[in-house]
C-alpha cells in the first residue's frame, strides 16, 4: 500500500485529491497539510511514502518543504511529487534541485496522477514532457553550466566507464530493461549499476541522476553522451 500525504493550501483541492487517491486500491491518504511546514512535519509523523506537494503555500513554500524532506536522513524513503498550476522553468528547476522525484501540472488526468504516484513511489523519475525539455535547456544556459565534452567533475569522476554508460542511458529516459538491452547486460546487472551510481553520487532516485548527468555535461540536450561508447568497454 502506497501511503500518500497531500500538501495544498486549498482545502477543496486537497479533498478532491484525497477522494481520487482513496479510490485506488493500492493507495491510502495518511495526511493532509495546508502549509509547507505542516507537510514536513506530517511526512515525519505519518510515515508517508509519497508527498504530493503544491508549490505556492503559506508559511513555507513547497520547494523549501521539498528541500527539507530531501535533506532529512530519516525521510530517505519519502518521495515528493510536485503538482502545481505554475508550469514554469524556474519552478521545475527549483523543485527538482530541491529533491523532488517528479513534476506534474494540475491539469493532469486523474488516472495519470495515480500512475505518477506509483512511478515515484517505485523510485523512478516522472516529469511532464514539456517541462523536461525546457529544464534541460535551461540547465545548460546557466552561467556555471559545463561545456559539453569537458572532463566530468566531482563525484561523477568516481564512476566506472560502464557506470557512465548506464548513467547516459538513464538520462536519455531508458528504463533498466532498455538500458540492459542497449549494453548487452541483464536487467538485474543494470539495476545493480543504477543502485551503485546513486550511492556514489548520493542521490535519491533516477530524477536526480538525470539532473546530475546533464549538469555535469556527461549528456547534452541533443541526446549525445560524452561517456565512452558501448563498444569501448567490456564487462
Topology:
Blueprint: E1 2-7, H1 11-22, E2 27-33, H2 36-45, E3 50-53, H3 62-71, E4 79-84, H4 89-98, E5 102-105, H5 110-121, E6 126-127, H6 129-139, H7 161-171, H8 176-183, H9 187-201, H10 206-216
Parallel strand pairs: 1-2, 1-3, 3-4, 4-5, 5-6
Quick rundown:
Helix content is 47%, strand content 12%. The chain has helices at 11-22, 36-45, 62-71, 89-98, 110-121, 129-139, 161-171, 176-183, 187-201, 206-216; strands at residues 2-7, 27-33, 50-53, 79-84, 102-105, 126-127.
Features:
about 240 residues; Arc Repressor Mutant, subunit A; 2 domains; Rossmann fold; about 45% helix; six-stranded parallel beta sheet; 10 helices; disordered C terminus; single chain; alpha/beta
Amino acid at each position: 500500500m502506497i501511503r500518500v500525504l497531500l500538501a495544498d493550501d486549498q482545502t477543496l483541492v486537497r479533498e478532491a485529491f484525497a477522494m481520487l487517491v482513496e479510490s485506488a486500491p493500492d493507495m491510502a491518504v495518511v495526511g493532509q497539510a495546508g502549509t509547507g511546514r505542516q507537510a514536513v512535519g506530517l511526512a515525519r509523523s505519518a510515515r508517508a511514502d509519497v508527498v504530493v506537494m503544491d508549490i505556492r503555500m503559506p508559511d513555507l513554500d513547497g520547494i523549501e518543504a521539498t528541500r527539507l524532506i530531501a535533506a532529512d536522513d530519516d525521510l530517505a524513503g519519502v518521495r515528493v511529487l510536485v503538482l502545481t498550476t505554475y508550469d514554469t522553468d524556474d519552478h521545475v528547476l527549483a523543485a527538482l534541485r530541491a529533491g523532488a522525484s517528479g513534476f506534474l501540472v494540475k491539469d493532469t488526468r486523474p488516472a495519470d496522477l495515480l500512475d505518477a504516484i506509483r512511478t515515484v513511489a517505485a523510485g523512478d523519475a516522472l516529469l511532464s514532457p514539456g517541462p523536461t525539455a525546457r529544464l534541460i535547456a535551461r540547465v545548460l544556459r546557466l552561467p556555471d553550466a559545463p561545456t559539453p565534452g569537458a572532463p566530468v567533475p566531482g563525484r561523477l569522476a568516481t564512476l566506472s566507464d560502464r557506470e557512465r554508460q548506464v548513467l547516459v542511458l538513464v538520462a536519455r529516459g531508458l528504463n533498466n530493461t532498455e538500458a540492459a538491452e542497449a549494453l548487452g547486460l541483464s536487467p538485474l546487472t543494470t539495476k545493480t549499476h543504477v543502485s551503485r551510481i546513486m550511492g556514489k553520487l548520493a542521490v535519491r532516485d533516477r530524477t536526480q541522476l538525470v539532473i546530475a548527468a546533464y549538469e555535469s555535461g556527461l549528456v547534452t540536450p541533443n541526446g549525445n553522451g560524452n561517456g565512452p561508447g558501448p563498444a569501448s568497454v567490456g564487462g
